[in-house]
Design goal:
The chain folds into 2 domains: 51-128, wza like fold (2-Layer Sandwich), CATH 3.30.1950; 131-240, Roll (Outer membrane lipoprotein wza fold like). It is 27% helix and 23% strand. The protein contains 5 helices and 13 strands. Keywords: Cell outer membrane, Ion transport, Lipoprotein, Membrane, Palmitate, Polysaccharide transport, Porin, Signal, Sugar transport, Transmembrane, Transmembrane beta strand, Transmembrane helix, Transport.
């Protein structure tokens, strides 16, 4: 009788431990999601190596890759301003201009104000050509996808990549996002239909989406939520190696 009681006690203890572990996992996932929660105020900030076009209405000599002039707009011919290692671009007439960390509206307003020295009411447009989100793994068309918007949902990007493959592991989708010198990682679970609206997070330009296959047993070996001193490209290469 005593032996049965001991076995029953151990069994209940194991069940309790499993439940505690699952709760801890859920709490960790919730904390991770908080770092990727929707921010309606988010605006893309210009980065080093970005390709920028500048359009000034009726002023082809001040425009580079202008959307207003058909002879100056084709990216194929290198009609852009490249942000150099110091964070600068060379703007016609205005010269060296620091742009890293500025949003597109901020840069537009700055250029507009400076051009008023020569133009009464300059009409300008600024565009970042290489705003991209990378989708890798078990999707039909893995690709680097150009986006015009700053706010893009996960399912939007998966749709542009052709949708999930049959063997996609919807429980362990990883999102990587650069934060300074570190890369933040979160796990997304799209396996339960009732949770999809909450898990369909908003992605930003520069994010990586990695969809593992169901056979990838090592993909979720307690990967840290922050990978220090890395780029999203290098971090993605490490994680994709686990597929």
């Amino acid at each position: 009788m005593t032996k049965k009681l001991i076995i029953s006690f151990i069994f209940l203890l194991l069940l309790s431990s499993c439940k505690t572990y699952n709760v801890l996992e859920e709490e960790q996932a919730s904390r991770d999601m908080q770092d990727f929660k929707f921010n309606p105020e988010y605006e893309y900030k210009i980065r080093k190596d970005d390709k920028i076009t500048l359009s000034v209405w009726g002023q082809d000599d001040l425009s580079v890759g202008s959307v207003y002039g058909i002879y100056n707009s084709n990216e194929v011919y290198g009609k852009w301003l490249l942000v150099d290692k110091n964070g600068n671009i060379e703007i016609p007439r205005l010269g060296t201009t620091f742009v890293v960390g500025k949003s597109v509206p901020e840069l537009k307003e700055e250029i507009k104000t400076r051009l008023k020295k020569w133009l009464v009411n300059p009409v300008i447009d600024v565009k970042v050509l290489n705003k991209e989100i990378t989708v890798m793994g078990e999707v039909r068309n893995p690709a680097v996808i150009q986006v015009d918007k700053d706010q893009n949902t996960l399912l939007e990007l998966v749709s542009k990549a052709g949708g999930f493959e049959m063997y996609a592991n919807l429980r362990l989708i990883k999102i990587l996002r650069q934060e300074g010198e570190n890369v933040r990682v979160t796990n997304i679970d799209l396996s339960k239909m009732k949770d999809v609206p909450n898990q369909n997070i908003v992605l930003h330009p520069g994010d990586y989406v990695i969809v593992p296959s169901k056979k990838s047993k090592d993909f979720d070996k307690r990967i840290s939520t922050i990978i220090p001193f890395a780029t999203v490209t290098s971090a993605a290469a490490i994680l994709i190696g686990l597929l």
